[in-house]
Write a structure and sequence with these properties.
The protein is of the alpha/beta class. It folds into two domains: 206 residues, 3-Layer(aba) Sandwich (Rossmann fold); 114 residues, Tyrosyl-Transfer RNA Synthetase, CATH 1.10.240.10. 47% of the residues lie in helices and 10% in strands. The strands form two sheets. The protein has a six-stranded mixed beta sheet with strand order 1-6-5-2-3-4, with helices on both faces. A two-stranded antiparallel ribbon has the order 7-8. Helix 1 packs across helix 2, helix 7 packs across helix 9 and helix 13 crosses helix 15. The longest helix has 18 residues.
Length: 356
């Protein structure tokens, strides 16, 4: 596969930005199989934004000849008080339920390297963390804690100051040429890239789109940073009814989509439009089935066509919802079937863990 085709795969939706495309071209020129990394806190059930968006993107990376790694960030989860700050439980869920959500989406250990973060951390790692903190101001580090899903004013534990430095050190210790995350992790990637030049550890940052919650929501101030514009509207397991989990039943998926924000003729901030654009229409046309008296079945070739006919009022919200729910249920079928056979992993997550 030529370099331009590999770049196109990296840029394919749900990718939102590559920092930078020129650097990515250089990486493909110098590495036959560049190393990729994405890290995750271990918290509650896995929804579309965490599971499916990541799986789709990693499949693209694999096709482009990139070697992917998923870092199961147990210490990061501990600092951020996930699963009640119970480190033993965090590690159990990391190697059990959490890892197997990605396996259920086709990313088994023959395709992806799964690393428990604390297994990686040695004296060299902690030396790297200290070097990063030494080379970064406290104010800059505090600005980065939004990567934890928290505001600067919510930094009540001194450990949070280490969190961004640890995440930057993850990239360097894994010798990753491609650091991958959602747009909400952009700040720490930009910090790491600034340091990487003097550390002689160059890498490219790839950020994928953050799916909104089912209730949608207006974007933040357009003058705000890119990552701050999308964080508030993103899908959240902590908001009841906001998230579709990757192992939800067909009935649960349909019921949740039915209640989703999807105002007639409104494209901006429309959660169902975004699901269609980033999850369905990236691979194939979306078929909308409807009675002849309402225009009959139609097949939408791409997101541009969908947005135009929807804005023109030629597609009713309920018809779009039905099409998206049906397609999404099919996409997630392998995950549902996997967890039906491996209920022991679901049993690791209790009801109170869903929102933590």
């Amino acid at each position: 596969m030529d370099i331009e085709s590999r770049i196109d795969l990296v840029k394919r939706k749900p990718t939102e930005e590559v920092v930078t495309e020129e650097d990515l071209r250089s990486i493909f020129q110098n590495y036959e199989h560049p190393k990729h990394y994405i890290g995750f806190e271990i918290s509650g059930m896995v929804h579309l934004g965490t599971g499916l968006c990541t799986a789709l993107k990693i499949r693209d990376f694999i096709e482009a000849g990139i070697k992917p790694t998923i870092l199961l960030a147990d210490y990061h989860s501990y600092i951020n008080q996930k699963l009640g700050g119970d480190l033993e439980k965090i590690r159990k869920v990391a190697n059990g339920y959490f890892k197997h959500t990605f396996v259920s989406l086709g990313l088994d250990e023959s395709k992806v390297d799964y690393v428990l973060a604390s297994d990686l951390y040695n004296n060299d790692y902690w030396k790297e963390v200290l070097r990063i903190t030494k080379d970064t101001t406290i104010n800059r580090m505090l600005r980065c804690i939004t990567i934890m899903g928290r505001k600067e004013s919510e930094a009540t534990s001194s450990a949070v100051v280490l969190y961004p430095a640890m995440q930057a050190a993850d990239i360097f210790m894994l010798d990753a040429q491609i650091a991958h995350a959602g747009m909400d992790q952009r700040k720490v990637h930009m910090l790491a890239r600034e340091l990487s030049h003097s550390y002689k550890k160059e890498f490219v940052a790839v950020h994928h789109h953050l799916l909104p919650g089912l209730q949608g929501g207006a974007r933040m101030d357009p003058n705000a940073s890119k990552e701050d514009q999308v964080i508030e509207a993103k899908m959240s397991k902590s908001i009841p009814g906001s998230a579709i989990f990757i192992h939800d039943s067909e009935d649960e998926i349909k019921a949740k989509i039915k209640k989703a924000q999807c105002a007639e003729k409104v494209v901006e901030g429309n959660a169902v439009i975004e699901y269609a654009e980033y999850l369905m229409l990236r691979d194939k046309p979306l078929k909308v089935e409807r009675p002849a008296k309402f225009g009959g079945d139609i097949e939408l070739a791409d997101a541009a066509e969908l947005k135009k006919i929807y804005a023109d009022g030629k597609l009713h919200p309920m018809d779009l919802k039905n099409a998206v729910a049906k397609e999404l249920a099919e996409i997630l079928r392998p995950s549902r079937e996997y967890f039906e056979k491996h209920k022991e992993y679901l049993e690791q997550i209790t009801a109170k863990d869903i929102t933590r």
